[in-house]
Amino acid sequence: MELFNHCKLASRAGLCLSVIALVTACGGGSGGVDPQSEILADVPVQTTGNTPTAADPGEVEFVPNLGTGLDINFEEPNVAIGGNAEYIEAQWLHMQTCLQVSAQEPTVSVVEGSITPVDSNDDVVRHIDGQIQASSHVTQTSASIQIRSEDFDGTLGKPGTYLRSIMGRYLWLANNLPERDYLYECGEGE
Fold first, then answer.
1. Model pTM score
2. Which of 17, 12, 146 is nearest to 72 (CA)?
3. DSSP symbol at 186
C-alpha cells in the first residue's frame, strides 16, 4: 500500500511539473513579444528609390517617370475623340505624383462592353454589381491595363475613378509596397 501511495505522489508531482513547464513555455517571459522585433520609435527611417517619403525640406521633389508616353489603344476608334488619350496620360502622371512612385508604363486599352482579364491572376477592379471595370496584367517584361470606356462618361460615377484606381494599384504593387499603406485619396483625382 505504501508503494501505491508513493507512486501516486510521484505521478502527481510529475503532472504538476509538466503543467508548470507547459505554462512557462506558452505564456511566460515577455508576454509573447519578442523584444528583438519590437518597433523602435526613436530610430530614423530612411527611404530610397520609389518609396513614398514624408515632406522634408532637404529632399528633392518626386518627379514622375514620363518615359515615351503611354501606348493607348481604343477598341472603337470613335472613343478616342474627345481627348481621352490626353486625359489618360494626365491621370497616369497624377497617380505617380500623388503616390510618389513610378513603374514601367503600361499599355492602356479602352474597351467597349465587358472586360475579360488576360490571366486569372490579373488584378481587377469591380463595380458594386460585380462587373469588372478595369484590370491590369503584369509580366516580367510588360504591363497592360484594360479600362471600360464607360469610366470616362460619368455613368459609373466620377469620370476616371476606375482608371485611377487600377493605375494606382498597379503602381503600388509594382513597387512591392504594403497594401495597408496605400493612399486611397489619390484615386479621387485632382
1. 0.65
2. 146
3. G
3-state helix, strand, coil in the chain (%, to 5): 40, 15, 45
Digit-by-digit pLDDT tens for the chain (190 residues) are 666 665 566 667 666 556 565 555 555 444 444 444 333 333 333 333 444 444 555 555 666 766 667 889 888 766 555 568 889 999 999 999 999 999 999 999 999 889 999 999 999 999 999 999 999 999 989 999 999 999 988 888 899 999 999 999 999 999 999 999 999 999 887 6
Side-chain half-sphere CA neighbours of 179 within 13 A: 3
Q: Residue 148: enclosing H or E segment and its boundaries?
A: strand 143-148
